From TrEMBL:
GST C-terminal domain residues: 89-181
The GST N-terminal domain, residue ranges: 1-82
Pfam family, one: GST_N
Name this protein carries in UniProt: Glutathione-s-transferase theta, gst
InterPro entries: Glutathione-S-Trfase_C-like, Glutathione-S-Trfase_C_sf, Glutathione_S-Trfase, Glutathione_S-Trfase_N, GST_N_Theta, GSTT1/2/3, Thioredoxin-like_sf
PROSITE patterns: GST_CTER (PS50405), GST_NTER (PS50404)
Highest taxon, organism lineage: Eukaryota
Amino acid sequence: MSLKIYVDRLSQPSRAILIFCKLNGIEFEEVNIDLSKGQHRTPEYQEVNIMKQVPAIVHDTFKLFESHAILRYLASAFPETADHWYPKDLQKRANVECVLDWHHSNLRRGSAGYVFNTILAPAFGLPLNPQAAAEGKKLLSASLATIDTYWLQKDGSFLLGNSQPSLADLSLVCEIMQLEV
């Protein structure tokens, strides 16, 4: 089976997929899609992902985009993947799903809005937007507080009180690491 992963390492979701594959010994070919050069808008890349975003994968003939869907797929498609990443137990899995859904609506929106509008916009030929940055920072601060007061309020070292990381931990940590920019 051949697996191609289309990424830009500037992208938090791209990094999460690369890290997941490396941690789980999943062999893949990395295909760099330079967002700052508009490579995600080429007709060739549109054949891979009609939405023109990264990350995306092609696994044999199967194409998939959206980072959380890709992570779920990889955890299920490669049986050597440890259960803690995406538990088979339906209630544990539902809890991971809950964090993943919350991530995109909250932490991702705040982090991306803040970082893009304070630092990255000029790399894409766009002006900085202080108002959008302030809105992103507000949502980001609220999201970080929610992680601290809700998602980490159990005995384990990881989200949901787990003793080992899940797909949710990986997605959130890559998002938070983006703040180092």
